[in-house]
UniProtKB/TrEMBL annotation:
Matching PANTHER family: OLIGOPEPTIDE TRANSPORTER-RELATED
Annotated TM spans: 58-77, 84-104, 110-135, 156-176, 198-217, 224-244, 347-369, 389-407, 474-494, 514-533
Family of the protein in this entry: Belongs to the major facilitator superfamily. Proton-dependent oligopeptide transporter (POT/PTR) (TC 2.A.17) family.
CDD domains, alphabetized: MFS_SLC15A5
Name of the protein this chain belongs to: Solute carrier family 15 member 5
Amino acid sequence: MPDADRRDVQVKGFLNHMADKEQRLLPGRSNHDGKLSQPEKKLQEAICVLLVELCERFTFFGIVCNMILFCTVKLGYRNYQAAIVNMCFVGTSMLTPVLVGWLAECLVGRIKLVCICMFLHFLGTALLPVVSFPFEDIYIDRRHILNTLTKREQKIVFYFALLTASLGIGGIRAIVCPLSAYSLEDCGPKELLSFFNWFYWLVNLNSAVVFVSISYIQQSVTRNLGFLIPFVSGLMAMVTIHMVRGEMIYKPKTDSSLLTTFGVITSALKTCCVRYRYLSGGVTNWLDHAKENHGGQYSEIQVESTKSLARLFPLFTFQILYRTCVMQIPSGYYLQTMNSNLHFSGFVLPVAAMNVISIVPLLILVPVLECINSSCLFSSKDTGYSPTIYIVVGQFSAALSVVVAGFTEIHRKHFPQVEQTLSEEVLLVSSMPCFHLAPQYVLLGVAEALVTPSCALLSFRLVPERIRGISMHFLALFNGAGCFMGAFFVQIAHAGTQGNWFPHFLHEGKLERFFFFLASLMMVNTLGFWTIAHRYDTLHEDYTNEFRGSLPAEKLLKHKKTIKHYDAILESSPILSPMEKT
């Protein structure tokens, strides 16, 4: 037999043997025992995680959408107090995933903690109807009514319910459906941006359904029982978690943690202070003081990962004031809408339904941006726009939105006042149609469509894979800080102007001055980020080029290893007869 034919026989025998072995052992293929294959299992997990995510967001938006109306009408709060409560709840819901993630890493097991968070979520959403239930309308006999809660007791139960619900929301977001659970490790820049675009598109589509349906039910049909809908939605999320808890509970890698990041920063600060006082420098970055070879107690990898994360802190910082502007939708903009004419063709529009106007631009822009990204953003010619350009344009759009809100407020007060019934309460409002407020909602919706996915992409992409979850935690921390800063601004504006800049009766105050003040700060914030945006352009380009270059190299390396492995097995394979080896 010629050498070439003998070689072909050997190759065919080896390949047939390996194919039979792969058919028996490959875990990604269906088995005869009825178990799902690996791709089917991952698809099921992704669908379940997305379903829980949407159910949790449905609950969250259901609580937030009419909270100001509930606090002012039912609990008797002033406008600024209701706005502060709303923004603090949103901020707490952003911070609790970081807290729960730390507890899951250090103190409590993930399965046990997710059960605790599910119970807290159930408890919080179940207590909200207790506050809103109309006990005064239920009579036991002609002279007595069912025992009612006093205002003080209602407020205590209300705050406790919000706290427990926010803790439950934090557990679901941090443990069950973090972004790392979507298996984004092997995605390139183009795929990551596409994921974030469509992820936030689905979240906002869900919120649009909530703002239209739940807000109408809470406001018009049965306002006092409206909080039962967030309760039912939360129950759906918990049942979904219970059904597939074994497969959908994400287990992150243990080679990095939030405590390690804080430890590196603390160790570097301590060592840096000591060396500044007694020794000379000798390091290029102040975080290098935390390395073991510079007197610290952390390894080279841990410190370098923290350094890459620290480069994102300016990006996170400029998101604080932007998030404060976005929080005007459920606070300042909501009050403007509540004090405008909501009648449209004989139908009273829900106040929170105006939020849908801010969501429509995002639902339209995401497919458009996807077409742009697919054609030129990450093309080989590199002629597309950087994510930082989207962030700058989005932040400018947010500043412009607040400016328009200020001028619209001046315009609104020029209309005569009329009586309008909201939640069975007669209010004196402006006769200006609420649709005159649409431009400010649209501009802020455009800002969200541009800023949020781009910022998430940079936060996820510009750090090593091992600390991407920590990077998203820090982004959530700064976004939560933006919500609390918004509450702080409202408190300062009300206290510093004796209620003139954030009044209870809008026609008697100067709410437009608060908007102009916030817009001026946002313009400075936008210019500040624009001056440093080139840093992230360079980093993003480097990571993109690294991703492009790594794929052929990895394939070539795997090909070389396969050839060497094949040659080694071919020389000593037991499936070949001694005659074929000769």
